[in-house]
Structure prediction request, 436 residues.
Amino acid sequence: MEYFSTLDDWLAHCERLHPKTIDMGLARVKAVAERMGLKFACPIITVAGTNGKGSSCAMLEAILLEAGYRTGVYTSPHLVHFEERCRVRGDIVSASDLIACFARVETARTLNGHEISLSYFEFTTLAILQLLADAKLDVVILEVGLGGRLDAVNILDADCALITSIDLDHMELLGNNRESIGLEKAGIMRAGRPVVVGDPVPPQSILDHAAEVGADLWRFGQDFNFSGDKLQWSWAGRGRRYAGLAYPALRGANQLVNASGVLAALTALRDRLPVTAQAVRNGLSMVELPGRFQIIPGQPTLVLDVAHNPHSVAALTENLDAMGFYPCTHAVFGAMADKDLAPMLARVGPLIDKWYFCDLPTARAATGEALQATWAALKTRPDVTANAYKSPELALQAVVKAADPADRIVVFGSFLTVGGILKDGLPRLSAPHLAA
Prediction:
């Protein structure tokens, strides 16, 4: 059978197969995985939650790499290139490696003329899992894409599950309150295996489900905790302590909560994946993850953040407030139409002096004009201006023309918003006023 020769063609094929949905159950995905003979011979860590998943995966990877382990990581979505979703031994995989695995999924999916329906996410997840299974790794870290219970990643039994913060997002699929969303995330738990709950105030549904399935619950504030001052922080958990740690290289106060859950997960797996205190120190000090309160030096200063729900925007607001004084803060914002937009705009609004709302290249997105209308209905500060643009790139161009060197530019919202700014490389801004 002749297959596609480029990754873009394969991704287009996946888009055509079935609508993106998580409400079809996992039986089809498991059946294709069985046809593929998909198996892992190393420990698996799955990471679910509303916010902090990508940061937690990056910290796990950085520490385990420093400890000498051959790591594999799967995260989603990507900022610019699909290949970003998979890293092997710290490096982004190649399109050619992915193409071969896409072909294996399609062969299994259509075996002997008995086709099995897969969504885009299910198909691409199986391809990446196959690549990781073939890579002879010591540990695999898998971010759960959206929910947990019905997510394609959940066809695998994790040796340790990590659940980060829970907040209201994707409510049309996961439920309209933290309890129902928490129950969906709890679906990654397994009997007798550790589950680390990093949310300081977790939904009761998560705690109840851990008891129901007999998982080994590690709860923030009870089984592990952290403390710190302006210079360093410490962590303590079951039978393990780390003192005098430097703050994680990922910026933002919320990253200590994420790092605390990461250290609990590693402690829970210490018999199979022992790590030294030095590996923890080095890993946390060198971890990188684009688009998570990423500050790019220049004139003006540029901040990139994929905050796209009320909880993550609240964290972004706190982090921006802690940066100190800027004469003017410009915001480029683009988001999906189904997001809880008004609370986000209201929360960060007091810090923003000029808004640049933008369209995004997907039918799911709200237009820049619609975002501007939502903002206008909030009746915030009368001295704030707003305009709409056809893309994040055009919005940023308008900001640079208007901004002074001492100003601050914040680009936030959807991955597509930040990705639009990064697609031609990391921007280094130089306001035209410098040459005046």
User: Anything to note?
Assistant: The radius of gyration is 22 Å. DSSP finds 15 helices and 17 strands in the chain. The chain has a mean pLDDT of 91. The first helix runs from residue 7 to 17.
